[in-house]
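>> received
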Amino acid sequence: MQNLNVTIVQSTLYWEDPARNLEMFAKKIEDLQEETDLIALPEMFTTGFTMNPQIAAEPANGRALQWMGQMAASRNCVICGSVAVEDQGKYYNRFFWVRPDGSFETYDKRHLFTFAGENKDYAKGSGKLIVELKGWRIMPLICYDLRFPVWSRNRYREGKGFDYDALLYIASWPATRSHAWRIMMMARAIENQAYVIGVNRLGVDGNEIQYTGDSAVINPLGENLSNLLPNQEGMETVIMPRCPLNSFRESFRAWADWDDFRME
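>> returned
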């Protein structure tokens, strides 16, 4: 099992303007100097966190998905992020994991942010997704999911090992609650003995909500491996080393005492 190179993209977004956002991100990805295995974009990266899916959502196999396939092929890496989509008459905040060969997997946001009315405009997802990349098992989640630790709880099963090695959160997390974002990412890493990748947007959206980013790559000890600063527009490729994860899990076997949570 190899080290994993993860590129986190901390960026402003153009409000409900997919064409302009795709053009912007294409330029950023084209300018990336480092080799990488994964490029992670924020939540609803084509529109911002909009509650206007009637005008902003696209078909499930629409332009954003096609664009992600092109970007993944051009960089020979996985591209991921979420998009507002319409699927069989319902709207979803849908995460796409797109590989260089064009194949993809999806996760629909489970915990909808009722404070903003997301539950009125979007349907919630029902299933989890765990993807594999270079021997790593990664569980993607979206923004508000971070507040619900049972949903993201890791498990160890004899003969199968851990459910995942890294949690991946993409977000539109407001500046007013940035402290909670940082603390809960560290908590999820520590309690699950796994890495946490968190990618959050910058700027001000169409509802005058401010975002400071605070994107991070957290190791199982709760330490941030990223050098990105709050309010800093940029991309960073972070190496997630595999050996320290394995040795930490073996030397500090807290996972052997985990409670067996079950979702009802």
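>> The domain at 4-257 is CATH 3.60.110.10 (Nitrilase/N-carbamoyl-D-aminoacid amidohydrolase).
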